[in-house]
Structures are given as C-alpha cells and as structure tokens.
Design goal:
This protein is α/β, with parallel strands linked by helices. 32% of the residues lie in helices and 18% in strands. It contains 11 helices and 14 strands. The strands form 3 sheets. It has a 6-stranded mixed β-sheet. Strands 6-7-8-9-11-10 form a 6-stranded mixed β-sheet, covered by helices on one side. Strand 12 and strand 13 form a beta hairpin. Helix 10 packs parallel to helix 11. It starts with 14 loop residues before the first helix and ends with a strand. About 13% of the residues have low confidence.
C-alpha cells in the first residue's frame, strides 16, 4: 500500500486551447450543439441526478483562500445552492438524487463556534428540494466535526451502518469506520462513494493506525513546518499536504470486490470521492495521496465509466486510457455572486450527459 509511482508531468490538453479552437469555429459548434440538444431532449433519460461541490458556507464576510490568492464568497454560497435547488425542482424529469461532493461548510465555522448552525442551515436548503442527497466527506467536514459526529449528522448511506461494516468484514482498531458505501438508483447502474480521508491527519484520531500511517507519509514527502504548504513547486509531489488524504487498504480491497460483482452483473459504475484521482483532471496539489492505487483498481474493472470529485475549485476533466471519464466539479465557494456552479446529469443507455450551469460546462460522456 502507498507505493507511489515515479512522478510525471500533467500532459492534459489545455482547455483554453480547446475553447480557442471552438470559438474560431463558432458557427459549426453552435449548429452541432443545437442539433445534439434537440436529439437528447427527444429521448427520455433512464434517470437524472444533480451535482454540486465545495459549497463551504459560513455566515461571515467574503475572504480568501489559504494562500490569499482566490476570493471566497462564504455567505453567497448559500444563495448559489438555493438557485441550484430551484433549478433541480423545476426540472421536467425530477432528479433521483443529488451528489454533494464534499466541503458542505467552511472550516472557519469552527473558529466561530458555528459548525452545527452552519450545517443545519445548509441541510435545510437541501431538505427544501425533497430530493435525496448523498453527502461526500471532504477536508472541511473534518475541520468542523469528528468522524463519529459526521456518522451521526451527515451520513447518507442507504443501509444500516453496522450491516455495511459486516459487508466489508473489518473494523478499524480505533473503532472509527470508513465512510464508503454504494447504491443503485436504477437497474444496471451503481454509484460508489469513497472515503478520501480514510488515511489522514484531519480525518482520524491521533491514536489511530490511520493517523500514524498518514503522519509517516507526510514526514517522508513533506519537510515543511506547515504541512499544508506543498513540498514542491511543481510535479505530483505537491499532493502531499495535510488537507489531502488517502484510501486505506481495507477500503481498496472492498472497492475491488464490489467492482468485481458489478462486472459480473454488467453494471455501469460511477465512483465518487472528494479528492480527484487522475493527474490530468485536477491541479496536482488536490490529488489523493495514493491516487495511482485507486486508478489501478478502476482500470482492472470494465464496469467503471466515470469518477466524480470536488476539492479543486477550478474543476477539470479527462478521459483516461481505459475510457473512464474523470470529472472534477467547479467549487461554489469561489463562484462570483452573479454566476453559478452546479450541474444536472442525464443518464442514458450509452452515455451520460452533463448539463452544466455557470462555471460548469456541458459534457457528453459516452461509455466504452
């Protein structure tokens, strides 16, 4: 476990170049988009779902990120969530569920002793939709709450927790469970929610095996006094920071077993995590520590068609060598008040179509 491959440079094509080409061919692109939209609108999707990431709500004035380079709109994030909810409620085909990709409230709430109030405020907004929400845990969840608190207050598993633990056939020595589960919204489709802070400093108690494992990893790769400061200016080593984490071996083994069953059932699987796992779908500083181990598992299973994540507020996209679509969703927290950042995914037999809003672009994701 955690045997990292030699770093390589991000070779993804710049989206700016693609946009530049698209702009030059504006007439052609407009006709193609219009024609494709009309075709999709005439076909009833099997089901739809909403996606939103990095809301990071706090009842405080606007501020900046850790490096003071990006503005964050803490109060306004609630308004953007409200607009997204109104859009989902008005859809002709009501979304079967919403994926909330982590960082539902901001870490500043802890400083102001407002964590529970902020969480209740955001959850109330979600409740107003009447749509089931699947919550992913990110670093800001752990800035505000313990793992045990989150199991009680932000646990969206659709099965009893103890039952799921029996399925994995293990429990951690410190009795702190991994937050990983799966659900099937429609026949032949499955979604898997992973715990990207299974091995981490912020998501585990200091006396736990996972905490000590995370500490050894950071001490090996990051020699800064401030562990949220990347150990390098370039390359994939930037991912070894305290606000990231990794997937434990028990969770990886469970994922491998689950995907084997999905292969046998001929299912199409979308895997979800707060942290991205492909270097070409995100900035290196936002990658999961052992991203390559997860990729190796996904590539060994024909059932996997998509991986969705948040964390990188700029968003990103890449289709890898196995045909898996890696979608990193733009963060609400750094979206200006006059803009939006959410999407609705329409699922068909041969593809998923993402209809983005604001900063989130439209995408057609064909299965291979």
């Amino acid at each position: 476990m955690f045997k990292f491959k030699r770093p390589f440079r991000n070779k993804c094509v710049s989206e700016r170049r693609v946009v530049g080409w698209w702009t030059k061919h504006e007439g052609l692109s407009s006709r193609l988009i219009s024609r494709a939209s009309k075709m999709d609108d005439s076909i009833q999707p099997l089901f739809t779902f909403g996606v939103i990431a990095d809301i990071q709500y706090a009842d405080i004035d606007d501020g900046y990120n850790f490096t003071c380079t990006r503005k964050r709109y803490y109060r306004n994030s609630l308004q953007l969530l409200r607009r997204a909810n109104e859009k989902w409620k008005s859809e002709t085909v009501q979304p079967s569920f919403i994926l909330q990709l982590g960082d539902i409230i901001d870490g500043f709430n802890k400083k102001h002793e407002a964590s529970q109030k902020a969480l209740d405020t955001v959850l109330k907004e979600f409740d107003n939709t009447g749509i089931n929400v699947h919550h992913v845990w990110g670093n800001h969840e752990f800035y505000n709450f313990s793992r045990q608190d989150l199991i009680t207050s932000l646990n969206s598993q659709n099965t009893d927790f103890e039952t799921r633990q029996d399925e994995i056939k293990h429990k951690h020595p410190d009795n702190e469970q991994s937050y990983a589960y799966h659900f099937s919204p429609s026949p032949n489709f499955r979604f898997v929610v992973l715990d990207a802070y299974d091995v981490s400093l912020i998501g585990r108690q200091e006396n736990s095996e996972q905490y000590n494992q995370a500490l050894k990893i950071l001490q090996k790769y990051n020699h800064n006094d401030e562990l949220n400061q990347p150990p390098a200016y370039l390359g994939l080593e930037q991912r070894f920071v305290k606000f990231n984490g990794g997937f434990g071996q028990d969770q990886l083994d469970w994922l491998d077993r689950l995907l084997t069953l999905s292969d046998q059932k001929l299912e199409k699987v979308t895997v979800v995590s707060h942290l991205p796992i492909h270097p070409s779908s995100t900035c290196p500083v936002c990658l999961a520590w052992n991203y390559d181990e997860v990729l190796s598992i996904l590539h060994s299973h024909k059932s996997v068609v998509c991986f969705m994540a948040g964390h990188d507020h700029d968003g990103g996209y890449h289709q890898d060598i196995s045909g898996i679509h890696h979608l990193t969703f733009e963060g609400v927290i750094e979206t200006q008040p006059n803009n939006d950042a959410f999407g609705t995914v329409y699922v068909y037999e041969d593809r998923m179509k993402l209809k983005g809003n604001g900063r989130v672009p439209h995408r057609s994701l064909y299965y291979q």
